[in-house]
Structures are given as C-alpha cells and as structure tokens.
Design brief:
Keywords: DNA-binding, Transcription, Transcription regulation
InterPro entries: DNA-bd_HTH_TetR-type_CS, Homeodomain-like_sf, HTH-type_TetR-like_transc_reg, HTH_TetR, Rv0078-like_C
DNA-binding region: 35-54
Radius of gyration: 20 Å
Number of strands: 0
Helix content: over 70%
Pfam families: TetR_C_41, TetR_N
Protein name: HTH tetR-type domain-containing protein
Largest sheet: none
Shape: elongated
C-alpha cells in the first residue's frame, strides 16, 4: 500500500492543479475572459477549494507569474554551467529568456496580462525577486574582471549601487527585447540575442 499523503502534500497538489488550470485558461482566453468557476472546473475542483488558497483571480495570476519565472529558472539551470565566465552566464541566461518569450502563451501572460492586471510595480517586484540578486552578482564579477579596461566600470561608477543599477539596466533591456520577440515571433530570437551580446560586450570588453 502507498503511504497516506500528508496535508502539505494534498495542499501542494491542489494548488498545482489550480495554478496549471489558470495558466491554461489565461493563455487561451485571456485573464479578463476567464472566470473563477471555469478555473475550478478545469482543475476538477470546487470554487471553494480555489478561494481557500487565493483571495481571488488576481492573486492566482501572481502565482502563475511566479510559476513562469520558476520554469525559466529550471530551463536555465538545465543548460548546465557555462564555465565560470560571468559575461557568458549573463548571455546564456538572456538568450534563454528571449527564447522563452517566443512562446505565445508565455509572452501573453508574462509580458502583457501580468503588468496590466497586477500593475507595473508589483510585476517588476516579482521579476526582481527572481532575477535581480543573481544578475547583480554576475555584474559584480564581470566588473571585477574588466576593472580598469573602460566602459564596464568607468562609465557607470563604482560600488554596489552602481552594480545594482547596471543589473537593472540589463534586465530592462532584456524585457524590451522580449517584447520585440513576443510581437514578431521566433525568427527574431537570434537577432535579439545578438543585440544583447553586443550590449554585454560593450559594457564588459
């Protein structure tokens, strides 16, 4: 006989079912055209089960966005290490994000629905929660290896705050390139990746 599931395991299963159903429906119909009842029905659960875990549809969308970032993080980790060179790691993860944005369902949820529904500030906070600290660490390492060579340090100033601003600039550039990919489709992924590579190489020669 298989062991009985714990309450935590049952809770996680329920949340996963509802999050997956919400993601599917938000992608297919859009956030505004999807109801709580439809999400519960798609998951094979009750609306009461959904409201037990989330205050409403907006809170559920926030968790869907977290799941998208989690999926991207898993994809990046699955690529393996790109040596210890920080610029190569920044480039590899950036290219993977751009490829991620070529999926119409991902682009709709992550770049269109989420900022419109959650508001720019909350959407940005989720993005930074997942990627800012890692990007700052890679920027600091990249700047250390190019110290004294020019643009990477001298044009942005020194110190932790300037590394943070530079990391934000890189994330912002990727977001706009991701929008370009989302609007024009998969054929633009390679070109957007080359643009990001030019940016990195200009900052860290």
């Amino acid at each position: 006989m298989s062991p009985r599931r714990t309450n935590a395991e049952r809770t996680e299963t329920t949340r996963s079912q509802l999050t997956r159903a919400a993601r599917e429906l938000f992608s297919e119909r859009g956030y505004a055209s999807t109801t709580i009842a439809e999400i519960a029905e798609r998951a094979g659960l009750t609306t009461g089960a959904l409201y037990h875990h989330w205050a409403g549809k907006e809170a559920l969308l926030a968790d869907v966005v977290h799941d998208l970032h989690r999926q991207l993080a898993v994809r990046i980790r699955s690529l393996g290490r790109v040596g210890d060179e920080p610029v190569a790691q920044l480039l590899c993860s950036g290219r993977e994000f751009l490829a991620f944005c070529a999926d119409p369902a991902v682009a709709r949820l992550l770049l269109l629905e989420a900022p419109a529904v959650l508001g720019y500030e909350r959407w940005r906070q989720i993005d930074e929660q997942w990627w800012l600290s890692t990007t700052i660490r890679l920027v600091e390492r990249a700047r250390a290896t190019t110290a004294g060579t020019g643009l990477g340090v001298e044009c942005t100033g020194a110190g932790a705050e300037s590394s943070r601003r530079l990391a934000l600039a890189l994330l912002g550039a990727l977001t706009y390139l991701g929008h370009e990919v989302a609007m024009k489709g998969r054929p633009t992924v390679a070109g957007a990746g080359r643009t990001y590579e030019v940016l990195l190489n200009s900052l860290f020669p």
